[in-house]
Amino acid sequence: MSWQDEVDELRRREKLAAAMGGEERIARQHDNGRFTVRERIDALADSGSFHEIGALAGKASYDDEGQLENFTPSNFVLGTARINGRRVVIGGDDFTVRGGAADAKIGDKSGYGERYALEMRLPLVRLIDGSGGGGSVKTLEMVGHSYVPALHGFETTMQLMGHIPVVCACMGSVAGLGAVRTTISHFSLMIKDTSQLFVAGPPVVERGFGKPIEKDDLGGSAIHANGSGAVDNEVETEQEAFVTITQFLSYLPQNVWQVPPRIENSDPIERRDESLLSVIPRDRRQMYQIRDIINSIVDLDSFFEINPNYGESLAVGLARLNGYAVGIMANDTHHHGGAVNATASEKMMRFVDLCDTFHLPVLNLVDNPGFLIGRKAEEEGTVRLGSRALMACYQASIPWVSVIVRRCYGVAGAGHGNADRLNLRYAWPSADWGSLPIEGGVQAAYRRDIESADDPAARRRELEDMLEQYRSPLRTAEAFGIEEIIDPRDTRPLLGEWIEQAYELLPSQLGPKSRTPRP
After folding, report:
1. What DSSP element (H or E) covers 31?
2. Does residue 478 sit in helix, strand or coil?
3. Pairing mode, strands 196-198 and 432-434
4. Residue 516 DSSP class
5. SS3 275
6. Domains of the chain (ranges plus CATH)?
7. What confidence score (pLDDT) does residue 137 get?
8. Which of 55, 202, 245, 277 is the most buried (most CB within 10 A)?
9. Which of 307, 364, 374, 308 lies closest to 341 in space, CA to CA?
10. What share of the chain is helix, strand, coil (3-state, %, to 5)?
11. Local mean pLDDT, 10-residue blocks, the chain (519 residues)
12. Residue 99: what pLDDT?
């Protein structure tokens, strides 16, 4: 007695599933410059590590003798795999079968994958192509009735954000539920020229507004990775997407119950970069390259920037100090002089939430002239979004250190750390702080004096010169208003001491937070 016939039938069906939507549709996917979902999984995962779940799910038809006649696989491929040796859950839409639409859905493989990732505490990678299991009007013909929309399983989707890393890649033209899924993630990306993301695609938009629109003009990466901020990063190719996903995950733990992984580091933590002594210009109106400072402080080639083209006055990303993972925030003077505007506030909030959720210590390099001012800033609601960013900073309980490299002004500057906690910080000799910069504050504080002078401009300069003597950070240090002023070249060695202490504390802080990150 043997079950070989049944095993042979099992292998035959697995082979049919691997054929996806057939040669013609696979060729069309390739002609559009895209891999199939199975090729994507093979390229992302460690060789031979993918174990498929639900491979036999599909629509089958049988002949009169009960023999399988035809088989169309589910348009969602799911399984576990390893990425750089670490186990993850991977799920991806198969665009070759009904464009990933709901009418080709079999069961709830996507939801099962989310529950698997949540309960097994594994990172989740979603490769989204199409509507991501969303709606299609063809479903009406198939089932004979419509339905009231509902997000079944959304509770699990929200729980994931507070427990495991979630990465979503927009791999093609993604609309509706697929677009929403892309944004409910800790990190998302799009591929230049070959992926688009929209609430509704061009045919629906054309019907609604009466004029045609190209899909890239409606929701290409130029819009969402370089403007709206709906997606974090833009990459050039699918292969680069897989490398980027791997890099991002390398900084994060498997889940919130584990400490972020440390890797071997060949860059001496005692390294003192001489360029740091002169990187900040004496002229406060001059700009400099903040990424040069970041790269001089962190381990060599370890800075992974997130969302570089959104909220550009604030640079954020992940890096390493002596092999330990750390979150980096830094003001970029090349955009609004480093002032925090509405988009930078939103970016800050999301990034702090990410670091706090996964217990990544934060290094804040501060050159913050305050919240952006002016009518446009008011119209964009900078003050409300800025308030949310400040709340995120004060709600965070992770180890946090600030290095004030130049300006730290106003309410936005006050958010450089949590003044109700230890607020560990260092300052460079170039540091400059207060409620308002002297240059603008004099006009407000001494208005009558200036206006009544014979030469108002000369009187204003006189007052500015008089107050300049109080500007030195050494005066603040005398009053213990700043704890330490350091040689900029000592920044990396000092941070090496801090990161060691931070990672000694982290085991006592593990587990989920009381709230999930805000997507």
Report:
1. helix 23-31
2. helix
3. unpaired
4. P
5. helix
6. 35-57+74-251 (3.90.226.10), 274-431+482-509 (3.90.226.10), 436-470 (no CATH)
7. 61
8. 245
9. 374
10. 40, 20, 40
11. 90 91 90 92 96 92 85 93 97 84 74 96 94 58 65 83 97 89 94 90 82 84 88 96 98 98 95 96 92 98 96 97 98 95 96 97 96 92 94 95 95 91 95 77 76 81 73 88 96 98 96 82
12. 64
Location of structure tokens 């507070």: 162
**CA–CA separation, 207 vs 195, rounded Å?**
22
Task: Give the C-alpha separation, 250 to 263, whole Å.
Answer: 9
**192: Cβ contacts below 8 Å, ≥ 6 apart:** 221, 222, 234, 235, 236
User: Hey, what are 159's tokens?
Assistant: 């729980």
Residues 239, 189: Cα–Cα separation, whole Å: 12
For residues 137 and 90, the answer to whether their CB atoms sit within 8 Å is no
* DSSP state letters, 445-487: HTHHHHHHSSSHHHHHHHHHHHHHGGG-HHHHHHTTSSS-B--
d(CA 180, CA 231): 11
Separation CA 500–CA 489 (nearest Å): 19
Say how far apart CA 289 and CA 269 lie, in whole Å.
Answer: 22
Distance separating alpha carbons of residues 383 and 341, to the nearest angstrom: 9
This prediction's pTM:
0.91
For residue 86, the model assigns a pLDDT of 96
Measured CA to CA, the distance from residue 197 to residue 218 in angstroms comes to 8
**Tokens found for residue 387:** 């308030």
State phi, psi for 312 to the nearest 5 degrees.
Answer: -65, -15
Predicted confidence at residue 440, as pLDDT, reads: 67
* Other CB atoms within 10 Å distance of the CB of residue 237: 14
CB-side neighbour CA atoms (13 Å) of 167: 28
Contact between 360 and 351 (Cβ < 8 Å): no
What type of residue is 289? Q
Which contiguous run of DSSP H or E holds residue 427? strand 424-427
In angstroms, the CA 519 to CA 353 distance is: 9
